[in-house]
Amino acid sequence: MVRVSMLRPLTGAPIRGLTRTYATIPAKAHHRVVVVGGGTAGVTVAAQLQRTPAFENKDIAIIDPAQTHHYQPGWTLVGSGLRSLEDMHKPLSSVIPQGVKHYPLRVSTFDPANNSLKTSEGVDVSYDYLIVAPGLETNFAGVSGLEQALQDPASQVSTIYSDKTVEQVWRNIQAFKKGQAIFTQPAGIIKCAGAPQKVMWMALSQWKRDGVRDNIDITFATGGPSMFAVPKYSQALEELRKQRNVEGLFQHNLVKVDSKKKVATFKNLADGAKGALVEREFGFLHVVPPQKPFDFVAKSELADAAGWVDVDKSTTQHTKFKNVFSLGDASSLPNSKTAAAITAQAPILIDNLLATMKGKEPKAAYDGYASCPLLTGHNELMLCEFKYGGIPKETFANILGGQESPSRLFYHLKKDFFPYVYWSHFVNGTWYGPNTFFKPDTTVKA
After folding, report:
1. What is the C-alpha to C-alpha distance for residues 165 and 150, in angstroms, rounded to an integer?
2. Is the pLDDT of residue 2 over 90?
3. C-alpha dihedral sign at 183, 186, 191, 192
4. Which of 67, 189, 308, 329 is deepest in the core (most CB within 10 A)?
5. Out of 60, 132, 192, 298, which one is annotated catalytic?
6. Mutual angle of helices 166-175 and 195-209, in 10-degree steps
């Protein structure tokens, strides 16, 4: 028998009786459906499945060692001084769906040929069906000197990509009055590709409010070739960048931070640059670290060559193991990795899982829908919505016109409505994004 005790405090929150001891866990367990991951994807798909009348013999288990569940899209709001960090997390136990078993364990290996997995604590868990949704890893060690810089409050280096560092972002924005401010975005796949510039636009807006904007030179340094991957929104953001006098340093990937000398080093990824290193001095630096699949996923039989769970981009079903599905950041689905994408993926996955349980072919198809509510300043937000191929799929276009124009209405959706609906409905399995509270018909082709 294994007894697990989680003693880690909630970072950034007042410490009030946080010691939590879990019940005794057997050395072996079996469940009809096992969900790996208690983040947005894992909790949401478990909640929706648990609520589905067609899912009989309900027996679901979630495996996740975390003590806390985070509303990560809210970290942009915290870093911009718009919301409190306390609003953006709850105990994981409070969001585990009723009737779903939670194992506070860490998965170490998958054995899909035998429908089982093993945890670091030595527990063997077998399943009839597996949903893999552990998210991805923010690789702070992927930039030399970054970890040390983030530990020093005086470094003027910060990031919204951790609950441990996000409050420092707002402190740094408030304290900075003059000099060079650099905001970075790494090459490759990251959570919410719009977030790196959301914090930049909010900082610019705050510095303008404080009357110091003219004293600050702002650079957006990205490993990508443009402002955004979707051409319609990229063009609008490029126009905004020029209007607001922000330097665009494209195809420059941050590789090193020297917080003592206040120097950031970039690798030039442009053709013909031969990977030349470029140094830039800074007074303020906001870093988005590179991100990658967790090793226990990347080194498993479930992974593709890049380390993501290898699933069909339409059905979310594994390409080899037909009783395995995946959604969210850990999956190979070639779309933007956002919470909004999960609202579209979860109903598709569930319908195809139920079809597989009945011995039928999965027919529900995911079109790649994702959304990036991109803050462009106080009281304005560009609501980017799109599907596979970078094709816009806008909810309000027929009512309000093209969503490439920043709007105050969209700003309040992000700041006020989305955090509320997340805790009240999203993780309870009753929120479907653009379909609001109504489960979409997954047989309808978009």
Report:
1. 7
2. no
3. positive
4. 329
5. 192
6. 30
Q: Residue 320: CB partners within 8 Å, gap ≥ 6?
A: 112, 301, 310
Kindly state the DSSP code that residue 318 receives in the 8-state scheme: B
Q: Average pLDDT, whole number, for the chain?
A: 93
Burial class (CB in 10 A: 0-12, 13-18, 19+), 260: exposed
Q: Is the pTM of this model over 0.85?
A: yes
Residue 355 CB coordination number (10 Å): 17
d(CA 176, CA 200) in angstroms, rounded, equals 13
Q: Per the residue annotation, which of 78, 117, 303, 372 is the catalytic one?
A: 372
pLDDT at 10 over 60: no
Does the pLDDT of residue 444 top 90, yes or no? no
- Other CB atoms within 10 Å distance of the CB of residue 290: 22
Q: For residues 317 and 312, give the distance between their C-alpha atoms in angstroms, rounded to a whole number.
A: 6
* Token pair 């409905």 in the structure block, residue: 425
372 is catalytic: yes
Instruction: Based on the residue annotation, tell me whether 384 is a catalytic residue of this protein.
Output: no
| Percentage of the chain lying above the pLDDT 90 cut | 92
